[in-house]
């Protein structure tokens, strides 16, 4: 079928709305008419070549929409069903079978391989130019910067009909990544002291999740005063402006010593070290932010040796369907107001939305499809 997609021709090229042909769904696949798609930091990494996705290609991995068609063998979904498109996974490897599909052993291929993960046409892209030339797709299993996206039925999460569908896309990645780091990895104990470095979508989602936990000190660290103010409104007990204060000293002063947990949500290497330094013996530093490929960081050996844990988290860990459904329920109960992060843009303004996000003017841009 003929669709419109935001195509990136080469590294650092602008998004260009382009007509492409998209395959009909094959076995186990579902065609989704995209209603809206969030823009994530990871889309920018791929566009700049810091994430190895083949170009020309179509990005976008926070899509929400309605089922337009289902392929052979798909049960449980029908035309018109409202859904969020979650992360892909093979479903068969050791980690998938253990209930950790975010760490699928074929994750690199699933996220940035540019083609289908499995099935009779594994490795092939479903996107082509009208003249037949292939275009890389299936970014995070969806490539949802488009009017339609082809995904697998296993990646879908059903959206209750009383929730605003256009808002739900960011649950696929940014919101669930921060929230899942708290709910699935940190699991704060009563009275826990948590420092969150970076008050973007991921960090603010982590703060909202921490507010729904027994943690009693939740510290937001950022350089944007407006985001620190929002962090307080969403659950942070304290805020540290890193442009005015040394964040390590400030966090330790607020905690009366080391923090129990630090969440690094920026992907900035200098900030990684700061996050690691604010936790002490038996403390945990959780790495969440996406740094450029091949980025490295160093740690002090002695202080790390004394029981400190450095843990990486992808997509919030756990099972995406359970996590996304839980956040939707918390939102419906008024306990997770992630709508406060969102600003909507027309699909044609995709480049403006991304630029405003980079400038710190918008926390979570969401594109509405025509």
From TrEMBL:
Molecular-function GO terms, alphabetical: oxidoreductase activity; zinc ion binding
Cofactor section: Zn(2+)
Annotated Enoyl reductase (ER) domain residues: 6-367
Pfam families for the chain: ADH_N (PF08240), ADH_zinc_N (PF00107)
Keywords per UniProt: Metal-binding, Oxidoreductase, Zinc
Family statement drawn from the similarity comment of this UniProt entry: Belongs to the zinc-containing alcohol dehydrogenase family.
Protein name: NAD(P)-dependent alcohol dehydrogenase
Organism listed in the record: Actinomadura chibensis
């Amino acid at each position: 079928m003929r669709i419109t997609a935001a195509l990136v021709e080469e590294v650092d090229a602008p998004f260009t709305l382009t007509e492409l042909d998209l395959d009909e769904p094959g076995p186990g696949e579902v065609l989704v008419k995209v209603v809206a798609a969030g823009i994530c930091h990871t889309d920018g990494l791929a566009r700049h070549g810091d994430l190895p996705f083949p170009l020309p290609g179509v990005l976008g991995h926070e899509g929400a929409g309605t089922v337009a068609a289902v392929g052979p063998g798909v049960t449980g979904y029908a035309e018109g069903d409202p859904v969020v498109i979650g992360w892909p996974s093979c479903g068969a490897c050791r980690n998938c079978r253990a209930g950790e599909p975010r760490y699928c052993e074929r994750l690199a291929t699933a996220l940035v391989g540019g083609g289908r993960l499995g099935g009779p046409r594994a490795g092939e892209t479903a996107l082509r130019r009208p003249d037949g030339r292939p275009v890389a797709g299936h970014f995070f299993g969806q490539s949802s910067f488009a009017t339609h996206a082809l995904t697998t039925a296993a990646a879908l999460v059903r959206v209750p009909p009383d929730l605003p569908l256009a808002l739900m896309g960011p649950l696929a990645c940014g919101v669930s990544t921060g929230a899942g780091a708290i709910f699935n990895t940190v699991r704060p104990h009563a009275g826990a002291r948590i420092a969150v470095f970076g008050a973007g979508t991921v960090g603010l989602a982590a703060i909202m999740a921490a507010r729904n936990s027994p943690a009693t000190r939740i510290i937001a660290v950022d350089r944007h005063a407006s985001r620190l103010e929002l962090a307080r409104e969403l659950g942070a007990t304290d805020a540290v402006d890193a442009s005015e204060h040394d964040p390590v000293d400030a966090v330790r002063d607020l905690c009366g010593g080391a923090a129990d947990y630090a969440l690094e949500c920026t992907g900035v290497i200098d900030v990684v070290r700061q996050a690691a330094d604010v936790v002490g013996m038996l403390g945990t530093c959780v790495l969440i932010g996406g740094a450029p490929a091949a980025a490295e960081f160093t740690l002090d050996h002695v202080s790390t040796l004394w029981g400190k844990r450095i843990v990486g988290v992808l997509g919030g860990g756990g099972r995406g369907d359970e996590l996304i459904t839980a956040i939707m329920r918390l939102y419906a109960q008024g306990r997770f107001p992630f709508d406060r992060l969102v600003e909507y843009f027309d699909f044609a303004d995709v480049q403006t939305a991304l630029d405003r996000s980079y400038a710190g003017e918008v926390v979570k841009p969401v594109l509405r499809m025509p």
